[in-house]
Amino acid sequence: MPVSAEQYTSLRAVLGDHLMLFAPEVIVAGTVCVLLLLRLFKAFDKLHLNPVAAGPLVVALFLLGTQWSAYFDGSAGATAFSGLIRLDPFAAFLRGLLLVFALLALVLGRITGLPDAADSADYATLLLGGTLGMMLMASANHLLMVFLGMEMASLPCYALAGFLKGRRAGSEAALKYVLYGAAASGVALYGISLLTIKFGGGSFEAVAKGYADLARTSSLDAITAAGTLMLLVGFAFKLSAVPFHFWCPDVFEGAAAEVGAFLSVASKAAAVGLTVRFLMTVHGACADVTFVPKTVGVGVMVVAALTATLGNLAALAQTNLKRMLAYSTIAHAGYMLMAVATFTSDGAAAALFYLAGYLPTNLGAFAAVAAVRTATGGETLDHCRGLAKRSPATAVALTVFLLSLLGLPPLVGFAGKFQVFESVYSAGQSFGRLGSTTLEGGFYALLAVGVVNTVVSAGYYLRVLKAAVLDDSPDLTPRPPLQSGEGEKNQNPLPSPLRVGEGAGGWGLTAFLLLLAVAVLVLGLAWNPLLALTSKAVESLPGR
Amino acid sequence: MISLWHFLGVGAILFGLGLVGFLTRRNLITMFLSAEMMLQGVVINLLAFGSHHGSLGGQAFGLFIVTVAACEAGLALALFLMLYKRGRSLDSGDWQTVREVGVPPAVDTVPLPAPPPDDHPTLPVPGRLPEQAEVRFQEVTRA
Amino acid sequence: MNLTVVLFAMLAAVTAASAVGVAASRSVVRAAVWLLFTLIGVAGVYFLLGAEFLGAAQLIVYVGGTMVLMVFGVMITNQGPFAVLRTKPVEWAVGGVLAGGLFVLLATASLNFVSSGKTPDDPLPGISPIGLSFLGVEDGGKSYLLPFEVVSVHLLVVLVAAAYLARAKRRVNQVASGKEQGTNKEDTRQEQGVTP
Predict the structure, then answer these.
(1) Structural domains in chain C, sorted by start
(2) Pick among A1, A127, A132 to test the C interface (most C CBs inside 10 A)
(3) What ipTM describes this predicted complex?
(4) Residue B69: which CATH number?
(5) What is the pTM assigned to this prediction?
């Protein structure tokens, strides 16, 4: 079957348009290839390749910036590549966020020396490969792209979790992640196949149309329910939402702090974006406004409440900083899911705002843990004691990040939480006006859960703060094991890629931390520009 | 006559057995083999759908799944070999270094029967000791 | 009772039986070989569905490549006491109940499916439309240019990841690393049972 002349010209025209919008992803993919080729030359053996990889990312961000106005005035931003992905303002916002994060993660890796020069090409390749997958997740408009994006985002993360090959905990983290991840992707894929069969196609439009038909009869049949549930299980796994959160603490504790930041911020941003887009598309097509909130939405609400509560309660008991931050990540996923559960564009905007604020805050928190690790060789609460005396700048930055995670004004964490709670409250009101008292009550209960959780979370954030600022620096020479087997993980020497000592990190790390702290403060003080951006970004989403 | 449902049934059998195998087995490779089986069930589903509608979508989707599953298998195998080199075991219960504070590692309450003794003949170790060999190797590569 | 039905029944039986073998066999090697038969049976189902290309790809890529790799991995790691899987009766019971429940759930869900569209006997598009759609030509359906290209990048990234995980780290201090590995081996629990 030869290609006809018309097909050829239409292909060229379509590709020309779509490839321009898709240019950031193309650049990221090209950088992966270039990094591989660079290692062929002996001259690059001793060179740290993170900065080399960061260069094209800046170009990609610049390109995205030049297309920004085209996205927002509506001249660009329809579906691309035969409807497989949707490059709209919503996707553009998340793609920009992911690119910024990848850039910062490369810089952080260079500063803390997580990959040494020999491993830097692999680190950058994995990071960029994961980012590419996440960018596809954020713009997916077809269940095939959902699957591919999730796999592309996950597989490099498995390897990144085990990046410190010399350490048993790192290998174990990678092992748990890869096993659970394979099963979760299998379950999600089965859900995708059921939905595809049911609705006669995998595009979000087909799914939305199918849901609209179901809403007319107000009944959810078994195959749709099973398919949606299994797909959402896959999303929940990526979001580390209860009850699919069990991998998160172990993986975060075993992986390096820099990798933890990538998993907790970038992976979450992509998963939230995908969940929001899928649910809003489905919801927007239904004529009955309460159909999706009453079926899927109730499940999301319950999961959100459980996730926030369990994450915060479990974090109270932690002594390992990375493990505590993992539970904090779970809790924050719960807050974001609260915004998602509203099914309003306000809620979607709140989720985006929360993500944008979460980026510098949580990256900063993990970077501070990395700073503690490079200075002392450990990552527990004890290693954090006396931080203010040892390194005042790090302590100040850590304070800012923790208070922002807690949600104190005038930091960006407060602004994000305020947006989320406000959207939940107004969703409750609007459902009350529609006469659905159960949903109204549900949203008010969700609001109460959120507020109580914020108070609970003060317990562990302030504990770290107290240890860092008020306590004296303990003797940090390696202690003998407490019990047989118990001290094993503290005794593990750090493998060679990680530099430990007073000189490691140095001013670069301090500057990085202070920069992020300033960003947290500035975004918290002047949140109107970001708010305007997020509310414009969600306009492209279907929904009310 | 064979209907779509029959194919979906085969898919469901493969997926269900895969999921159960994944949840009950403890050998890493077996767990992973079960996960692969789950994916096969999905591909049958999608192909049955594609054949039912006479469309391209199911088949293309299936091809991508096969590709991605091969990727996953390759990565997982590399990881398993690395783990095996470290621990000489692929029992998932042996990997409990990272766990909750204060929670003891989960161990079998009933001790399992001891494996039969290895009756292979032991061969003498050929060549030099590994450490010396490595030092020698370094000298050679440096020169 | 025509040939298709007989073929389907045979293929389905082979596939399902060897799938049970994967989930239930005591030896890892046997589980891997059972999976081999499952995959071949599935490939047969693909042929039956009219997807010759996918069936051939399954045989070449999966059975010929991935599974041989897996069996190879099993052979390398299949030493010591854990070659025989330990499974307790309770686990069998739980697994069996779970399998039965899940299958009933999925089967009833599939049974609810109201068939629509064309008849099942419609031939699937052959290789040529697939190839064209992977290269971006929309011929009534979708073009799969984007996933096709993106998957190639994905393969590259995973290749790098696997190579990174599998290769040994070049250590600065050989003696120290040897010591470290020694201590790590000693403190792991499974070492106790390996050598009598």
Answers:
(1) 1-110 (1.20.120.1200), 125-170 (no CATH)
(2) A1
(3) 0.89
(4) 1.10.287.3510
(5) 0.87
